[in-house]
Amino acid sequence: MAAVTSAMIGVHWDISWHQSIGRDTFWTPAHLAIHLCGVLAGVACAYLILSTTARRESSIRTHAVRIWGFWGPLGAFIAAWGGIAMLTSAPFDNWWHNAYGLDVKILSPPHMVLAAGIIWVEVGALILILGYMNRAAESERGLLLAMFLYVGGMILVCLMILELELTIRPLMHRAHFYRVVATAVPLVLAVVARGARYRWAATVVAGVYTLFIALVVWILPLFPAEPKLGPVYHQVTQFTPPEFPLLLIAPAFLLDLVWQRTGHWGAWKQSVVSAMIFLVAFALVQWPFADFLMSPAARNWFFGTKYFGYNTRPDSIYARYLFVRPETAAVFWQETGLAFVIAAIGIRLGIAGGDQLQRIRR
């Protein structure tokens, strides 16, 4: 959990560092926080695997899997591979910047290796906790369940970072924005809720995402920063935070209500209805909230729309609080239809994946 948290703090800090200071060196505190995740995961899981392998009478050995002659919990092996991938990405990312300069996009090749490593660490942590939780007595499940839902929320935070460039404020009145959100959120909510077997799991996961991003929005600007690269289009004196979290908690709450009442339905019927409810509920809250975020009322420390990176051009639609022109009617409905199909498939896969998670004991 410490590794997962360190990675998500470090990634948001690093993005803010790029927007506020620029990339002055690889050895920034933000980069160290990110790669601390790989170190913590690697060391912890290596110890767990090696100690389980060495102690044949270990209680963990009876609930372990054997891979390449080593014994350990399944989640430990997955998280260890994630930690290795993260540390492998570090010199790759440093070379990339030396060769090509600053990041133009978040989704660069070294960042994809890093993101894959982080996700594997998170998934490994989720399965490691779940193995203990599924073996635990009912009286012992409370703390493990809280840890499981927290890591599920961090997975949602991580996936939303990957979609960051396609979910900014100026795009919130386009159907494509909702299709992008539908590619990750319904799947995560469904698989964690099904695996946790807790009636408010989706709401808690969305709540973890909301609180974490909100804290980043409120805390980062408290620290001073000054651009070290040019051109400087906007004078920055403090760290630039990410945008205010999306209102995912509203559709997540409704999904919990629906899933509590439709457990006896077929998986596809439940998925189709859930996808429709997710998209409608999310659009009903996020569309008008986007209008509010563009208004002067949101230009304060709480909602954070007053902050801009040093390389934000003053004549850009972002700086002028404008929306990107909406799609034509035909494209709008096409994107909406794709969003519905993607959300339905994601929820169906999440239900199937959650059912598999319930069987994990090792």
Give a short overview.
This protein is 64% helix and 2% strand.
Low-confidence stretches: none
Number of helices: 11
What share of the residues does DSSP label as strand, in percent?
under 5%
For the record, give the distance between the C-alpha atoms at the N and C termini, rounded to a whole number.
Answer: 19 Å
Q: SSE order in H/E notation? A: HHEEHHHHHHHHH
In total, the number of strands is 2
Supply the number of structural domains: 2
Structural commentary:
With 362 residues, the chain is mostly helical. The chain has two domains: 1-166; 167-202 and 217-225 and 242-362, no CATH class. Helix content is 64%, strand content 2%. It is built from eleven helices and two strands. Strands 1-2 form a two-stranded antiparallel sheet. Helix 2 runs antiparallel to helix 3 (74-100). The protein starts with a helix and ends in a 5-residue tail after the last helix. The model has no long low-confidence stretch (mean pLDDT 89).
Index terms:
single chain, 362 residues, mainly alpha, 2 domains, two-stranded antiparallel sheet, 11 helices, 2 strands, 64% helix, globular
List the helices and strands and how they pair.
Layout: H1 2-20, H2 29-54, E1 65-67, E2 70-72, H3 74-100, H4 109-135, H5 141-162, H6 175-182, H7 185-196, H8 201-219, H9 249-261, H10 267-294, H11 329-357
Antiparallel strand pairs: 1-2
Helix pairs in contact: 1-2, 1-5, 2-3, 3-4, 4-5, 5-7, 5-8, 6-11, 7-8, 7-11, 8-9, 9-10, 10-11
